Amino acid sequence: MITALSIGPYFFFNFFSLFIAACSSQLLESCSSTTDCGAGLYCGNCPALGKSQPLCIRGQATLPTSIISGLPFNKYSWLMTHNAFSIVDAPSFTGAQRITFYNQEDSVTNQLRNGVRGLMLDMYDFENDIWLCHSFRGQCYNFTAFEPAVNTLKEVEAFLTQNPSEIVTIIIEDYVHSPKGLTKVFGDAGLDKYWYPVAKMPKKGEDWPTVNSMVKNNYRLLVFTSDSSKEAAEGIAYQWKYMVENESGDPGVVPGSCPKRKESKPLNSKSASLFLMNYFPTIPVQNEACKEHSASLADMVATCYKSAGTQMPNFLAVNFYMRSDGGGAFDDLDRMNGQTLCGCSTVSACQAGAPFGSCKPIAVPNTSSTTMGTAGSFSGSNRNVEISTQKGVRTLAGYYRKAVSEESMQEFGLESNHKERWSTVIWSRLIGL
What we know:
Elements (H helix, E strand, L loop, with lengths): L13 H10 L17 E6 L4 E8 L19 E4 L26 H6 L2 E11 L2 E5 L11 E4 H14 L5 E8 L5 H8 L22 H6 L4 E5 L3 H6 L2 E2 H4 E3 L28 E5 L7 H7 L2 H13 L7 E4 L9 H14 L43 H4 L1 H14 L2 H6 L7 H12 L3
Parallel strand pairs: 3-4, 3-12, 4-7, 7-8, 8-9, 10-11, 11-12
Antiparallel strand pairs: 1-2, 4-5, 5-6
Helix pairs in contact: 9-10, 12-14
């Protein structure tokens, strides 16, 4: 599993800090472990692009509000983790062997510490409680369950308490039917004190309040649900009333195309002021994520920017967010924020209080390394890749033949004897993506 990068403040003698900095490898320099790399970097490689030698690559986002503050919330771009709870090697809380796909590699706490500010969570009724499950057909099973949702929400509460100037967004894929179930679980986690009131959200495409005013009022948690009834029943914002969203899964990674999700308004709609951009394949594979987060991601950002009528995505949702061949999603977010906030090639070139387009002379790192060796391996966990893709697909077929009816197969154009198509298509179409 990827080593956490942000683990709280440490205090060293100045000379020791300078010694460590001098000895640390920098971006795209060789490494053998994360401890070899400088601040905000970790040791990884990208065999999917033929880059097997471990190098120091980015592992933390630049927080745009630390450079340019005081703008409306919808002027910023933030990193979002798809199925933030679906973590490789996460322990089973049900006692059953988990059979599902995984989308992330480190804890929600570490995701937040590394600059993630948006979390996609799938919530279900399960065992007389609200659980996070990576499941299908609106039902959670013991082999698709991860943990009670309150556990993850308490991690968010702890982060917001410890970081009083930060804002977090949660998007719920909502399968909760118990009355006031979401209200209760957020209250039990202590998050109601940070709740952004739905009544104060802009509903006609206007700008959001500034990040400074949101922090001042302690409206530092934005929560959206996929269930339209929850806005009236529980005061939880219906997602597609406030944001547009492109298609997720395989349709959302086709080069040169950025179709809208069916529930969403057109991407260029002016009646919603937030834009969620998905960029992840239907079936997640850890070792392929570094390739997904290379030049193809930057190209898709440009495509979706045009499709949205030159609106920059406010949230960039990815799998395995730290995987790349150098700068990955972090570099793309820097460019997105730089262009929007100050008209510069990267947010690091922005200058607070300077006219738009006035940029500091700063070298934009070239994160596309060239000559690579063959030694070494990625420092994260690859042990579950085969379980979650190849062997897992075969195992899933057995479970889902029992869990889903013949009528469900016919609904998706499958005959009962189409075993191979059953194992992949049913999962990819029914799983919460």
